[in-house]
Amino acid sequence: MFHTRRVLCGYPFALREVVFGLIVIFCLTPWASPPVALALGLLLAQTLGNPFSAQTKKVTAKLLQYSVIGLGFGMNAHAAVQAGREGLLFTVASIAGTLVLGYLVGRWLGLGRRVVHLISCGTAICGGSAIAAVGPVLRAKDEEMSVALGTVFVLNAVALFAFPPIGHALAMTQNQFGLWCAIAIHDTSSVVGAAAAYGDQALQVATTVKLARALWIIPVAIGTALVFKQKGVKIKIPYFILGFVVAMLINTFVPAARPLGPLMVSLAKIGLTLTLFLIGAGLSMQVVKSVGPRPYLLGTVLWLVISMASLYVILHTV
């Protein structure tokens, strides 16, 4: 029924395409939120499926990048520098610890070296962006990339729903929760989504620290090329972070541009909500099952360790 194509006014369509379009429209309204959008995407993926899977894969990454740049118009450079300083030590320690732990647990599980490194980098730095950057350096196969991305995206979905209730239960401050999100949640989309659900200050801290963390893609990719003895590879630099910094500097030092800030931030949040719907719509049960239990076990162990360790340190030091 939902897959059968019909013709209206000379245009062929299927009902599942109509459902997809209606959800997209809903994500553009004030009633939608990042967790709701992700849940709708997951529901669509498990039932009707994503009718535009090929197109949404291309759109999702760009939409996320533009949304992050838009969030920069709501940031203050002075506050961002302070947040970055607070998160620097946590960032260095957690990245190094995650990569070492991932290597040890991966060997114990008997997983391939490239899959282990991809999942570890995704957990340590910034989820899918890190995997997309490190994968070509490793010359990873398509199935290895898919396994790593599937593992990270499933755990991202869990984190987006789980973190805000935990933060409220522990009475975490906005600053503490934003810092915890930036360190313990893989992908920038879920970091921003969870922090936005907690509060504006948490969103500012989380976005700043996470993007500063994402810059570690570059040294980690270079280290990967050296450790795996790969020559003649190109390292993918996350240039959208530069766009975020420029937007933040404009908002801080160009008074005439400040009235545009609230509009740009509102558009960015809408873009983020839509991004999470598209991510959820790509996580079909087939994708989840194709990963297999061992990569999920590795990803879960790394995620739990970094989440609990960073939570303990943040609650006792920040």
From TrEMBL:
Signal peptide: none
Keyword Membrane annotated: yes
Entries under InterPro entries matching the protein: UPF0324_pro
Main location: membrane
Membrane topology qualifier: Multi-pass membrane protein
Superkingdom per UniProt: Bacteria
Transmembrane segments: 20-43, 63-81, 87-106, 118-139, 145-165, 177-199, 211-228, 237-257, 263-284, 296-315
Location in the cell: Cell membrane
Any one GO CC term of the record: plasma membrane
Keyword Transmembrane: yes
UniProt keyword terms in alphabetical order: Cell membrane, Membrane, Transmembrane, Transmembrane helix
Entry similarity comment: Belongs to the UPF0324 family.
Protein name in UniProt: Sulfate exporter family transporter
Organism of provenance: Hymenobacter lapidarius
